[in-house]
Amino acid sequence: MERTVLGLCLVFAFGAVGCAAVAMDREATMAVARDGLVASQEHAGAVDRLVTRSASASVACAEPAEAARQAESLAKTEGGWAQTVGERHAVLRVPDGKLEAFLDALSALGDVTDEEISAEDVTLEYRDTGIRLANLENAHRRYTELLARAENVQAALAVEKELERVTGEIEALKGRLRYLESQVRFATIHLRLTAKEFPGPLQWVWIGVSEALTLLWTW
């Protein structure tokens, strides 16, 4: 009889713990949903149009490696920097408003060819990422409050697990927002450098003959 009563008590105790954890999860879910709706309404339409720009260009020059170093100096002069610099290539970042001026300055390095500028609107991604971040931050606050009120170990462990997951997602979204902001503020330039070919003695002879024949033909 005593064993039966003890067993019933244990079943009741575990059932109470489980119900408490479920109740806390439901409370957290409802609170997060309410906060998420508010955050979505607050952030909708709150972001101005955001555009990232990038450019690519090829430069034929006498010494590509030296031209790459000069391109890096030009970027720094404009308030930017070099992400990578090689003997025949460079990836450079300059303030978006100075992109055209930087491309014009490349003519000092050699003959500029294949210049192209492209743009991408990231407004929607930035806004949606901001809304998701706000929702997760609200969830983090709610879970922190629930953790402080947890009445047993099982409930505390469940909340801590959710807190760990939410924290990781928050950091990832913050990193994405920082990346997008950087891409908007600074344009990216992919620069290709090639060695300019100079005619040898025989080539100069052939050039002279070609020009002479052209003159005779037009005469």
Task: Write a structural description.
The chain is of the alpha+beta class. It has one domain. Helices cover 64% and strands 20% of the residues. A hairpin with a 3-residue loop joins strand 2 (81-85) and strand 3 (89-95). It is elongated, with a radius of gyration of 32 Å.
| Multimerization status | single chain
The fraction of residues in strands falls at: 15-25%
Question: What is the typical, i.e. mean, pLDDT?
Answer: 80
The percentage helix is 55-70%
Domain unit count:
1
* Adjacency order of strands in the biggest sheet: 2-3-5-1-4
The number of helical segments is: 6
Rg: 32 Å
Q: Main traits of this protein?
A:
alpha+beta; 5-stranded mixed β-sheet; 6 helices; 5 strands; 20% strand
Topology:
Blueprint lengths: L1 H42 L7 E11 L2 H14 L3 E5 L3 E7 L3 H7 L5 E11 L1 H27 L3 H33 E10 L5 H18 L1
Parallel strand pairs: 1-5
Antiparallel strand pairs: 1-4, 2-3, 3-5
Summarize the structure.
It is built from 6 helices and 5 strands.
